[in-house]
Amino acid sequence: MAVIDALEELRECLNPEQFEAATHVDGPTLVLAGAGSGKTRVLVHRLAYLLHTGRAQPWEIFAVTFTNKAAQEMRTRVEALVGPAVRSCWIGTFHGLSARILRLEGERLGYTPNFTIYDAEDAKRLLKRVMQALEFDPASKLVTVAAVHHAIDRAKSRSIGGGKDIGAGQENRSDGLDDEGRKDPLAAAVRRILPRYQEALRQSNAMDFNDLLRLALELLTHHPEARERFSGRFRYIMVDEFQDTNRVQYDLLRALLVDHDNLMVVGDDDQSIYRWRGADVANILGFSRDYPTARVVKLEQNYRSSAHILAAANAVIRRNSRRHEKALWTEADDGRPIGVAIMERGQDEAEFVAQSVASAIAEGEQPADFAVLYRANAQSRLFEEAFRRHGVPYTLMGGTSFFERMEVKDILAYLRLAVNPRSSQDFERIVNTPSRGIGDKTLARLKAAAEPSGLQGALMLAMPDERLAGVGLSPSAIKKLRALHATLTTLASMAKSAPAVEVARAVIDRVDYIGHLEAYDPASADERIENVWELVHSIAEHEALTDATAANEALNARATTSEALTPLAAFLERASLTSAFDLDHTQAQGVALTTLHGAKGLEFPHVFMVGMEEGTFPSRRAVEGAPEDLEEERRLCYVGMTRAMRTLTLIGVRLRWVYGGEDLRWPSRFLGELPDHVVAPCSESPFEAPKGRRSPWVDLRDNNGSRPSVRRRTVERGGDRIEYDDLQEPQDTHEVGGSPILPSTGGMYRPGVRVFHNTLGVGTVESADGVGSKTYLTIRFAQEGLRRVAARFVRSAEESC
DNA sequence: GCCGAGCAACTTTTT
DNA sequence: GTTGCTCGGC
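^ inputs. structure came back:
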């Protein structure tokens, strides 16, 4: 009876494809969900359907979302449909769910349940220490902490086979002179560093972000008892944003699917924007190959955007070669044309947006209905300033998260140490904060004393006085260490039984942290102190909430997750895994300021995409990099455009301020990819390009405020006729003979252009090939004759004069 | 061991 | 422009 009711209800609120995706619950299912096609709706209703019809018990459901915020939203929406039972479902990010698995079963791998999660900053500090110990040259341009961190990150997110191939047993190739080492010193360095880094993490009872995934996979792969516990339990598995999963995450899913294949994945290959982080589109493109029986459902009706916006986004994404062909359609009206505006500099761009928003608000629009999307966080500042000037409320998303602030991290370090005394990074962070006279010398001696025993973190303080004196520590230094030891011991014992808020208060009291902040920098003290109390407040809030959840779980007999975590430890985990994007913005009433990445999954009636210039968006690295990098930028552009419901405005500037000076920029190629009939220049723009300035810039507006006076040309390629605005580059070849070349490749290298080469002297360009940094020019030099050289070594002759 | 001055590197995107 | 780091003087 209930089943039939549920089906009838679903039929009413879902379209036929959505209905199929929501109710086809057994066996593998791939949902290819175009932007704005209601995929969250499908996931929510599917979950509700499973619970409501009794096909699944709450604890049998494992649902993976991309962010904690998305998980929270899913919970809330499902709860509204089926009540509090959903609280016992496992819903979270891959990292969060993996951590949960490891808290329960990680002891099999040598970690205690109170292990600490190191974020990127912690990981880099630890790497730095390891590299110092291995005597790497700190001045090396190639083997930097950041480069090594990135390399390790990539290696770990690609790692298969349970991660066994990483970390141990590679010391024998540590001379850096093996075959590969000759070719790639960074790889050789990583081979030496990684085992030490991994060992240091293990000794600290700590994991970095990728370890969470890797070790969970290792547990499920190599420990059958652990595997049975989870694979036997989760009978329905769902994954959102599947296009952005990496190899390890995919393997993790497969490891859970031993007894059944009830896996539904939802995604859109056109919205894959995390390749740089190890995401592998192959997971979604090859799903039907891995699961030949998979039902494939395509959601192609867009419910979000006007027809013009959809047409523009489709035109852009169509230029990518590696994608599933789809046909997104809408029943919506054309709507307003896409606005395109070109400003002189960043300030003008921000002023234009702020003014436009301010006047719209004056006419009754809501600030929260607007969003400003940019490529990189650094672009946000000008917009913050402009909105403040205009009195427009805004919400800055991303950027430095609350939990990344110095004062917050200090307190968190004490708390993490109280929960896990072995954490070396936290110990080093607080050992002399606030100043207590324990400097580098004392710390080095302490470590020397601990060395043979392998003690880490606060445990080093537990050594007897004689041992400390034996490494040359003075009585006064030992006294200071003892005082610290007493503090940390007290905190550690409090952490076992006292409420989390009390532990936090004790930290602040015992080390006089407020006094420290006042002394540290009086100018910022007030704000920092406020943040500290905000932290205490959020711990209290969290504690109240977990009490409620625990009570709820106690009612739910089969909700077996009596987790081994105290509220304090649970809070610390949340702090580690919560990004700036996860904080609650649902109450936010201001204009959203966010990166394009951060806008994924959101929608706004009015969207401004700013920084539409070559080198900004697409980013310089993408322009100079491989064609795949550019395709990812284009997907990012597609994601941005499809956030818009009613109006979309694209803005670029001619002069972009980059640390140091102003850069002359070309309009983003994406502007040139918009179809004519959906674009209109923003005639209401109060800014005109300054008179008398000539530059390679082509203003997209003509004097009448109608369609930009852009010359067009047609290129024949592979039987296709492709039309380009003359100011654009064809995206996959680097042709000479028409369009200007991107400034970031060094200038305009048309045939006939005179250029200067440092060793070969002056010559004339004959032809060019390749893309970005791999552009090569064939040049006729006066002395040397015809030579082919890399474009990056060549300047235009005018420029060099 | 502490602190201030001067300098380099930084900017892609985040769990 | 900013932040984090090194170096030298106290």
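The longest strand of chain A covers residues 644-658. The radius of gyration of chain A is 29 Å.
thumbs up if we can close this ticket
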